[in-house]
Protein: glucan 1,4-alpha-glucosidase
Organism: Hyphopichia burtonii NRRL Y-1933
Amino acid sequence: MKFFILLIFWLSAIKALYIPRSSGSSFSWSGFLPGVSWIGIKDASDDQEAFENWVLSQSNISFNGILQNIGGLSSILSSSEVSYGVVVASPSKTNPDYFYQWTRDSALTLRSLIYWLDDHGFPSNSEISKIVESYIENNYHLQRLPNFSGDFNDVTKKSLGEPKFHTNGESFNQNWGRPQSDGPGLRISTIFNYFELLNKYGKSITNDFLKNDANIYFKIIKFDLIYIINNWNINSFDLWEEINSKHFFNSITQLRALKDGIALVKRYEPHNEDFIKQLSSIFDQLKNYILNDSGFTNPSIPYLVETPPLLNSGKRSGLDAATLLGSIHSHNLENSISYEDIPFDVNNNYIFNTVISMVSDMKYRYPINHDKIRFKQNIGVGLGRYPEDVYDGYGSSEGNPWFISTATAAEIFYKTIFKYINNKEDILINNSNKEFFKLFFDDEMNEDEDFKIPFNTPEFNRLIKSLLNYADSFLIIIKDHVDSQNGDILEQFNKYHGYMQGANKLTWSFSSFYNSVRWRIKAIDSINDNLN
């Protein structure tokens, strides 16, 4: 049985996670530790060093795990079964059978490869860039496949809402939760990320079939934009493929895709003013829907609601890790265009409140988290998909913590740190976020008092340290449950005994962990480069 970090570890961490506060709205403390010495959640250097070594090792293992699940790079997948550039959700073919390519999973996974290219200076003749372009080529063919969601020749392009395909490029013609409206938008934004990288490094498309980036826009991206124009307001299955309704994740990632799409239309057909106006109008309509008409925010609930009809019917609380995934995948802090007009970025109060609401629920819901109950909520726990979940990775019984959800919580706060520092933002504490920020103070806040923590003051820097510690505490949960011998990550870990279960070598699990660690590195670099 895998045990959590010893109790003494957490007790030693607790003090580091609190920020002592003086009376009123001013702050005073001592002992701020600048530099790398405050990485991790434990002060003892041996444990910190072990954690740091594991993080880097597991990140490399996770990236290799992604590559092993992609046709053309894998040493475990047969080329007769998996086409070049195809992302397999998992090599598992039975109990459960995840041996397919999902539009959503593939688009999100490819972002990890694009991040790798950027972090390594886009090396010439890289197999990674060839795979990215093969993925794009594969999607050209997938778009045109007849499927149960519709016909490509239909003016509304409903066929593009088909969620998954066989790994050899054939249609999946069995019953499934379709349509899934998030796929086309995610594909747009992933390809947009790659275009941004090409421009940054002065590179060009090398794939002979694709020819050039303009051709990709006209032959692939434009059709996905037409899909969103015609289908943004339809009912669709959620990213968990269970509920046919309106969902935050689908809507917010479509909004991001429209933002990217408008930039591409202006680049490749600037004289098509009607199309630009149409996309801009849909962007405004969708944004207004998200903010005002959807029910994704509720005046009586502090967190985001993934599927409002389930809340309204009393079937669910609305709390769902999909909202956190929607936040991180609808924003990009590195592209040349700004996403500030897309709501609910990582440092939004609703996002903070969603995380602490999930922690509050799941530290009681999952027995594997019960050793955290005695502490304040500034220690991460294993997070599942949503409180009412009954999928156990094989069938219906009881839901468990997921690696995707837990890694995403960590990424939220690494990105928050990066954004605060990169933008030189003061931290504003008000009634909307006090429930979150008071986790890091050792006395009560005045509920009627709003205050500001100025950028790069000792108070600001200490709070940034606490956010880093909090993010790290979620990675420590993952450390306790991945395979300690080879670093494999499955879909879930059992809520009672902690062993992994569900789909083996899940690509999305590897990708989520890799992305989280990437932002951890960026957060730490920004701290060391910018704070006193």
Q: What stands out?
A: Strands lie at 101-102, 164-165, 236-237, 244-245, 427-429, 451-453, 492-493, 500-501. The two ends are 44 Å apart (CA to CA). Confidence is low (pLDDT under 50) at residues 1-43.
